[in-house]
Design brief:
mainly alpha, 6 helices, 4 strands, about 50% helix, globular
Length: about 170
Amino acid sequence: MPWLVLVLLASTFIALLRGGRLSNFGDIQLRWWWLLILGFGIQAIAAFLPESGWSEGLAPYVILLSYVPLVIAVGVNRDKPGMLLAGLGILANFTVIALNGGMPVLGDSIRAASAFTIETPVISDAKHVLFDEQTQLGFLADVIPLRIFGQGHVISLGDVLLAIGLGVFL
């Protein structure tokens, strides 16, 4: 998620250039803000689930569960600028993960994001699956390669919508 941090920092910088003040962050009134922490916390838990034993195959369901508090938090704050766009991004990611048992990642995008140092893409976490001919709603999958500070990342349309929505909010 370094790309998301970069987007949030850029949004803050743009806001400052437009006459905003950092002290305005103290005026942000998000209802049920703790749901955001809960949702991202559940995603963090999914990253640490063992891939064998009692939790085998559980991670995609935990990831899907993590989207529930995020959608609720966005829903109760939908009157804030950018929140509906962020919510659309969250729903796009939820949908493609639910249909494919994980977020599909395009192998060619992995290679491009790695600056072509990876020959054969391998998925090494429980949240992602390799994009193949069975992938449903492939246009919502992780297909956009990025290199940020020498690190490769592959993001989805949902990630882009989420980042723009949060940027507008800031």
